[in-house]
Fold this sequence. Notes:
Elements: E1 4-6, H1 13-16, H2 22-38, E2 47-49, E3 65-74, E4 80-89, E5 95-104, E6 113-122, H3 129-145, H4 150-157
Antiparallel strand pairs: 1-2, 2-3, 3-4, 4-5, 5-6
Amino acid sequence: MAMYRGAFDDVPLTTLFPFLSPADVESLRHAARAVDAARVDGEGAQWEWALQHAFFPGTQPWTPIVLGLDVVEQAAGGDQLEFQLEVVWTDLGQLAVDAAVNVACWCETDHGTHDIDALRLAVGEVSSLPEAFRVGAERLAGWLADPHDADHWRAQAGLPARQIP
């Protein structure tokens, strides 16, 4: 699957979402700028997009991502902390905006990772894509301002802390 990567200004929004008006495009850009401003490292975000997912690819065994951002925090000892914002296709062929904090699993049974404070906003039911993206971007910007400690997020979700040898 070919994923393109770059600054949000490089994202071909009207190709990915041909139904967007110029005001909708500006709304998405405004929300993405807020995410860039929230980055602790001061660097612009590297967004990813898949042109082949501009239209619903049919039900897949994986979630087709149209546009996304994954901010990874490096941690020692194999720990993992990621902040994610994605525009995806649901199995029903509907766009949705997903946002989550993702941490490595330290449970007795290894689940791989856990999503914490996950949010899914279906586009078209209650909100438009620009509205859902704005809410997801605001949530992501808030997370980026919060502690960048995976154990903090695990404690918030009632998950086991990392065992340090």
